[in-house]
Design a protein that fits this description.
By secondary structure, the protein is of the alpha/beta class. The protein folds into two domains: 4-36 and 282-411, Lyase, Ornithine Decarboxylase, Chain A, domain 1, CATH 2.40.37.10; 104-276, Alpha-Beta Barrel (TIM Barrel). 30% of the residues lie in helices and 26% in strands. The protein has twelve helices and 21 strands. It has helices spanning 22-29, 38-51, 67-75, 85-93, 110-119, 129-142, 177-188, 210-228, 254-268, 278-281, 314-318, 406-411; strands at 4-9, 12-17, 20-21, 33-37, 56-60, 79-82, 101-103, 123-126, 146-153, 175-176, 193-199, 235-237, 271-274, 285-297, 300-305, 324-326, 335-340, 349-356, 364-367, 388-393, 396-401. The strands form three sheets. Strands 4, 14, 15, 16, 17, 18, 19, 20 and 21 form a nine-stranded mixed beta sheet that branches. The N and C termini lie far apart (59 Å). The chain binds ligand LLP. The site of ligand LLP has 22 residues, from helix 10 and helix 11.
Length: 422
């Protein structure tokens, strides 16, 4: 499953996205530009689904919410895991069946819950007693019953980056494990609520199976306890979190993960739902950028490119490592350089001391594994219009989110007429 490969041509080796040269995409759409492979998206979805058996795979839109991406996955059979009214609209806009939509998140508002009920979504993952009462009252007012899973906090350390760990007791997510049983019982007696099961999500970019095992096993204990007290627990939502390899780190084997998921569902005789985001889209996208200039400061070589932390925040926010390739590598030895963006912060660094072939002004680079948590986390910091997004399909390419032009960027603001100008 390799969709971004070098091909030899008259001008030397060049990186392609499926059958399209990245240099052609840079000409066509400008840089910086996210490039996604539709074949990679679909193949990854199929591989994942095959590994997890008959689980309902709800793609987590927070990883990449571009309508073209969501439609590709929806067309291949994915449901959607959403966390906001905006993501709900996106999932519905590309015809994901409401029954295959799961609504998660600690801060769902009354308006968002009402929208979910009105759309008839398949599951609300409730994260607090307050949310439960609000949802129940909205459902009663509409004369419907909300299908609810309780998201519990299993107090398991996912052993991933601190900022993306979500299943420890001190994290804001889920219902305290010890209180979950009593709350489930209260919820089961409420009007407007159908208790369908339990949900967990312990973190993102997990690179070991053992935290999953620990969390699934705690969830299993709770499920059994609830059943012995007469409650029905028909569904288990095992969350997302499966990590990918950004280079050095070894990912969890998909088939071992799939076997664990299938075993958990079988042992507990429950229908399983999953919420993968990163695994599905991360490796299916890259960020294409152009070198603006190369500059030496002391004994450091800085390669200044036209993408920055406003386009891809992960290196600045998490110290994340992304593989970076020269699109048309120049022959010769590699040398260490710092690859940096134009934003006025020292933290706007994409890679430090990275061995790269010689790079000159005008050359293109590809920042790999940027399909997840790339474009969605972009901003217009420094009044930089965020990167465009393109998708390839064999030898075809389409712009799937154009770059805002400066007029559109400025048009988002309104200057009240009581502000006197110069
Ligand atoms: N379900 C829930 C409830 C979540 O909170 C998340 C991710 C997922 C599913 C999907 O997890 P995945 O399969 O993608 O690991 N911006 C960070 C990642 C934040 C993840 C937040 N929650 C990053 O760039 O690494």
């Amino acid at each position: 499953m390799e969709y971004f490969t070098y091909r030899d041509g008259a001008g030397g080796r060049e990186l392609f996205a499926e059958d399209v040269a990245l240099s052609q995409l840079a000409e066509q759409f400008g840089t910086p530009c996210y490039v996604y492979s539709s074949a990679a998206l679909i193949d990854r979805f199929r591989a994942f689904r095959q590994a997890v058996g008959d689980a309902l795979v709800c793609y987590s839109l927070k990883a990449n919410d571009n309508l073209a991406v969501v439609r590709c996955l929806g067309g291949a059979g994915a449901g959607a895991d959403i966390v906001s009214g905006g993501e709900l609209r996106r999932a519905l806009a590309v015809d994901i069946a409401p029954a295959k939509i799961v609504f998660a998140g600690v801060g769902k508002t009354g308006g968002e819950l009402a929208d979910g009920l009105d759309a008839g979504i398949g599951q609300f993952n409730v994260e607090s007693e307050d949310e439960l009462h609000l949802l129940a009252s909205l459902a009663v007012a509409r004369g419907v019953r909300a299908p609810v899973s309780l998201r519990v906090n299993p107090d398991v350390d996912a052993k991933t980056h601190d900022k993306i760990s979500t299943g420890r007791a001190e994290d804001k997510f889920g219902i305290t494990f010890d209180r979950a049983e009593a709350l489930y019982a209260r919820a089961a007696a409420m009007d407007g609520v159908d208790m369908v099961g339990l949900a967990i999500h312990i973190g993102s970019q997990l690179t070991s199976l053992s935290p999953f095992e620990a969390a699934f096993s705690r969830l299993g204990d709770l499920c059994r306890r609830l059943r012995t007290t007469g409650h029905s627990v028909s569904r288990l939502d095992l969350g997302g979190g499966l990590g990918i390899s950004y280079g050095a780190d070894a990912p969890v084997d998909l088939h071992e993960y799939g076997a664990l998921v299938q075993r958990t569902g079988r042992d507990l005789q429950a229908a399983v739902t999953l919420e993968p985001g990163r695994w599905m889209v991360g490796p299916a996208g890259l960020l294409l950028a152009r070198v603006i200039r190369v500059k030496e400061n002391g004994n450091k070589q800085f390669v200044i490119v036209d993408m920055a932390m406003n386009d891809l925040l992960r290196p600045a926010l998490y110290g994340a490592w992304h593989d970076i390739q020269s699109v048309a590598p120049r022959p010769g030895d590699e040398a260490p350089v710092d690859i940096v963006g134009p934003v006025c912060e020292s933290g706007d660094v994409i890679a430090t001391d990275r061995a790269m072939p010689e790079l000159r002004a005008g050359d293109l680079i590809a920042v790999r594994d940027a399909g997840a948590y790339g474009a969605v986390m972009s901003s217009s910091y420094n009044s930089r219009p965020p990167a465009a997004e393109a998708m390839v399909h064999g030898g075809e390419a389409a712009l799937i989110r154009p770059r805002l032009d400066y007029d559109a960027l400025l048009a988002r603001d309104h200057v009240p007429d009581w502000i006197s100008g110069p």
